[in-house]
Amino acid sequence: MTTHHAARRRAAAAALCAAAVLTPCISAQAAQASSEAAAAARPGEHAQPWRDPSRSPAWRADALLNAMTMDEKVTLVLATNDEDFDPLAHLGIPRMRRVDASGGLRGDTGVTAFPAPNALGATFDTALAERYGQAVGAEARAKGWNVVLGPTVDVDRNGLSGRAAEGYGEDPLVNGEMGAAMARGLEENDVIAMLKHFTVYNQESGPRETLAVDVSERALREVHYPAFEKAIREGGADSVMCAYPKVNGEHVCQNEELLTDLKQDLGLEGYVATDFNPRTDPVAGINAGVDSQSLFPGMPREAFFDGRIPEERTNDAARRILVALFNSGAFDNPLPTTIPDVVTTAEHQRLARETGAAASVLLKNSGALPLSKHDSVAVIGPAGEDAITGIEGSSYVDPGDFTTLAEAVRSKAGAERTTVSQGSLGDVALPTVPASAFTAPSGQEGLQAEFFANPDFQGAPVATTTTPNVDFSGAAPVEGLPAQWSARFTGTITPTATGLARISSLLSGSAKVTIGGETVFDGSRFIWDFFFAPQEYTLGGTVPLTEGESVPITVEYSTREAGFFGPRLTLGWQPESLIPAAVEAAKGAETAVVVVNEFTGEAVDRLGLRLPGDQDAFIEAVAAVNPRTIVVLNTPGPVLMPWLDDVEGVVQSWYQGAAVGTATADVLYGDADPGGRLPVTFPAAEGQGPTHDTGASVEYDEGIHVGYKWYDQQDEEPLFPFGHGLSYTTFEHRQLRTGKLDTRKGEGETTSVRVQVRNTGQRAGSDVVQVYVGHLPTDAVETPEKALAGFAKVALRPGEKREVRIELDRRALSYWDEDADRWVTPTGEVPVYVGRSAADVDLVGSITVK
Ligand code: BGC
């Protein structure tokens, strides 16, 4: 490992910046740089003085930039692959080798798959987030990477984004605190942390590369920017990836206004890189403030020399990359030349397990939890190797060999007391329905297929055939169709079993499937698969069928909304339900642990909040025979719970990486307290919360009221509020003491809230003290009824009490004034609430702002 001079320097600078307004902070650093630069003119100094690590990053960047030719600067800005950096080696500039790493290293093996970032968000534990960052950073460096694409601090706007699990939830403060801690931990390993994805990237549909979002300046400042600012100023993140969507008319990666805000107001001294294949004009991008083409080449080199890109812009871009290299420590610390196969360690695996338990949210407990190791237990559902460990796409981490939940429970309760039954396959693609199950109207095996030369089934079919099954990909199943077409498949389906059959599709386009007069599913998918994950995105439903009884089936497919891989529809099924066998297993056990799941990830949003496939029916069937049914939600976030009143307990376990079995078993058996609290609101119904518009454009008409703020404003009750989570012990909050805030003392002024927390139960556990501020004393704008202003995680033994002090930034007591283009801190009394969630307040006080 390296010396941590860079990290220490950053921490000192961050402390300085935190205590001052931005402008004096930057100019103080610049002044230091120029005085050091003057001092460097002394004869006899190092031939390449920028190699001197005792100098400040700013000084070194200036010195190196001055020594570079224009050609070298352009090479640095354009460098994407290893060899692109070779012409810069004589200057000491290392290869900048990048890896996606939000929850572990993507694409490598022998690494630690940590619980997904929103699980980390649920821990509300910044010290843990920093350790998680340190571990990911250490593995990155050991595997030969010095630019880590992460953390992601995008706000989860409505729970349906396919990538929701990549960030830290819906609250800007939680995203900022956790993102800062993670970035700090990463950069302690002399790697550059690249924050993702600036900004207003909250959904995948649209599709994401071309989605147009309209958002107010106030929402940008109060909701979508703050986490980036915190992770830059307090976490020392040295680079930022700009996001795909168009925000207020212009793609972020060529949006001068937004990129200028990022650098001038949010404090980024390092560089901006585009996301992969950003669909922007690279020259316009550089001129708007993109500094590096490291993720996606395609920039004409001549543009730097023929006047299209001003020289000062090239200088600035190159300098920003150099600042990041020096500031992070990446310049001074060469990557290893030998890469070990295995970089995960027992300590990192333990950390994943600890994080998993600390992230598990006990949503409901009627008393059955924690389980007794003396009771018999049936573990049912996808609780084996089929558990979902991570998010699909650029965050997916190979978990390697891991202990399954079934194994982990077996080792706690003993093999003799544990039965395992599948019950449901969970959210997976099903085998293609064979031709033998279909009969076309002609009597032939298969289905009749009618093709229309338009996407709306209009007019007479242009072709009619009989097809053995519904399974086409990339191209239309018949020749001669235009780019937009539709098809209707008809016939009968003859079930091979009696019970609840599952039907699923892999879909690019729109499909509606009707069986026996019932709509089994009706929806659209842009694509069915992304990269780097073991599963595909399915769309499907269930239908009760009887063995041997043929029923009519209609499958309507349209190319409408098909994505870049072209049309696809594969119709799969699971004719025989696994639920009855699981019900038998549940009947014979004192407790039933039912695992259900949903697979999500990049490029595809969730279409709704229902658990996919037969899983609701599965839970209901088990709960009907076992009064001690515990549901484990291996899901990216909220789901509807029509069975909630019928079960004894619900644990939200998120995607737990390699800890998917061990951490959940620790929580179920009380070997660890369920430490998680919801970093997102769980809606009570489809459509509750800010809109999810799947069209090409979205209006963020909720303004600043994202997440729990929306629920307060609309006076709506969610299923489970933000911040909710039970423990196996109980906590009491007493003696709220609030400070004052004097606005005359400057932007960096803070105030504090103190509260006494006592563990009033019989077990050790951890509480998350949540401090919300109420409406600000102003009529000029509407402010949230409650906004999280600070939080602290406190671990206490039974009977132990502690006074917790939580600092609140002046920002928490301010709003963005769009007319004046600045933060305003209204003076007067501001209500303060201390609570267990956004909906459960137990202490009320106020802060005087003068
Ligand atoms: C994702 C980024 C990722 C990049 C490189 C893109 O598809 O949006 O988050 O860092 O790919 O893998």
Q: Can you tell me about this structure?
A:
- The chain has 850 residues and is an alpha/beta fold.
- 24% of the residues lie in helices and 25% in strands.
- The chain is built from 18 helices and 35 strands.
- The strands form 7 sheets. Strands 12, 13, 14, 15, 16, 17, 18, 19, 20 and 21 form a 10-stranded antiparallel β-sheet that branches.
- Beta-D-glucopyranose binds next to loops.
- The site of beta-D-glucopyranose has 7 residues, from loops.
Summed up:
This protein is α/β, with parallel strands linked by helices and 850 residues long. The protein contains 18 helices and 35 strands.
**Largest sheet: number of strands, sense, barrel closure:** 10 strands, antiparallel
The distinct bound ligands, ions and cofactors come out as: beta-D-glucopyranose
What's the number of extended β-strand segments? 35
Distance between the termini: 48 Å
Tally of helical segments = 18
Give the CA-based shape: globular
Strand content: 15-25%
Helix content estimate: 10-25%
Uncertain regions spanning at least 5 consecutive residues: 1-41
Average residue pLDDT: 94
Oligomer: single chain
Nearest-angstrom radius of gyration?
Answer: 28 Å
Structural classification: alpha/beta
Structural features:
850 residues; alpha/beta; ten-stranded antiparallel β-sheet; binds beta-D-glucopyranose
